[in-house]
Structure formats: structure tokens, C-alpha cells
Amino acid sequence: VQLVESGGGLVQPGGSLRLSCVTSGFAFASYDMRWYRQAPGKERELVATIGWRPTTDYADSVKGRFTISRDNVLSTVYLQMDKLKPEDTGVYYCYGFSAWGQGTQVVVSS
Q: Does 34 score more than 90 pLDDT?
């Protein structure tokens, strides 16, 4: 099982980033997928979930700004992040099939 994130980087407040998580080794279309993040000095927190149906759910702090989506043909889950704030800074992790990706760093700063 592999989950490989990409798309992180440095962005100014108010900007946008799109994270991708390419997966392999399991039946992607049958599983819920999640994005977590971990800010410096803080615990890892759940940001967004997409079910296999697919239903979606978001942390209150990102509702209306982030959008999770999936492509079952490519076995990939995405996180579109708009109107980014400095408090969105952290390492973003993809999670599914009880496995974690290595994370991708997001820094929101002017």
C-alpha cells in the first residue's frame, strides 16, 4: 500500500493550493479517504473526509474554503484549498486503508 502526497508549498494569505494523493495497493474506490494536517507543536487533526459514495465532511475551520474530491480511475484524492490563512500552515497527510502518506508541507505566509 502506498499513498504519495504532492502539491504543498509556500503561498500568501488568501491564495490557493491543490494537494494530490496518489494511492496504490488497495481497492481505492471502496474506501473512505481523509486529509489530516499537523501544525508545528500541535496534534494531528482531521481536515476533510470523502466517502466511497462519495459523501464529504469538513472540519469547521475549513468549511467553505477547502474541497475534497476523488478520482477512482486514477486512485487519487485531492484537496483544493482556497482563501488560505496563516493558521492553515502545517504538514498535510493523506490517510486511507489504515495507511498514511509521507506528508506535504504547506506554509501560508506573507
A: yes
